[in-house]
Amino acid sequence: MRLVFFGSPEFAEPALRVLHEHHEVVLVVTQPDRPKGRGQKLAPTRIKEVALELGLPCVSPKKIKSGSLWDNLRDARADYFIVTAYGRILPRGILDMPRLGSLNIHPSRLPLHRGPAPVNWALLCGDESTAVTVMEISEEMDAGDIIRVQEVPILPTESGGALLDRCAVIGAALLNEV
Question: Residue 79 in contact with residue 5, Cβ under 8 Å?
Fold first, then answer.
């Protein structure tokens, strides 16, 4: 399958690596470099670093509605767009470009704990488990048709970061199965 991958932070790394191993990732889209650290030097996202390491073409548009991004996406002739913690809401025009659709990995049992911090909410609510959901993307946040869900038990001493890392690996495998 020809894929365009949208992602930015570490959470998206396992998915990009698994998809690169099993499919043709023709383009990676990530957030622009941002000031980081004490010196506020520009630093790339983790996904940009991984894309460059893997030799994948990568773009970091400042505006999602820029004509050059849309041209790159159309030229990719992708079967699917895969979105994993990209950090921006994609407009309908972009979501409709790939031949088979656009998919997302979300680290919760949707619709429970929708939004940007589902793992934190699962821990704060005292949930005994969470899930990883692979879903079709719709214009509404975390509201597309659910394709597959895998239960993830929350370990008694697990931190939010450790749980999120575990969900990222589970989500990558689940997405590859889908």
Answer: no
Coil, helix or strand at residue 164 = helix
Task: Specify whether the backbone of 101 is left (phi greater than 0), alpha (psi in -120 to 50) or beta.
Answer: left
Predicted TM-score of the model (pTM): 0.91
Q: Encode pLDDT of 50-103 as tens digits.
A: 999 999 999 999 988 878 899 999 999 999 999 998 888 888 899 999 999 999
Q: Could you say which DSSP state residue 149 is in?
A: E
Contact 171, 16 (CB under 8 A): no
Which residue, 42, 57, 43, 64, is CA-closest to 3? 57
Supply 20's token pair: 């690169």
pLDDT value for 158: 85
In order of 33, 36, 49, 62, 72, the CA distances from 59 in angstroms are 11, 19, 12, 10, 9
The secondary structure of residue 114, as a DSSP letter, is: -
Q: What is the DSSP code string of 45-97?
A: -HHHHHHHHHT--EE--S-TT-HHHHHHHHHHT-SEEEEES-SSPPPHHHHT-
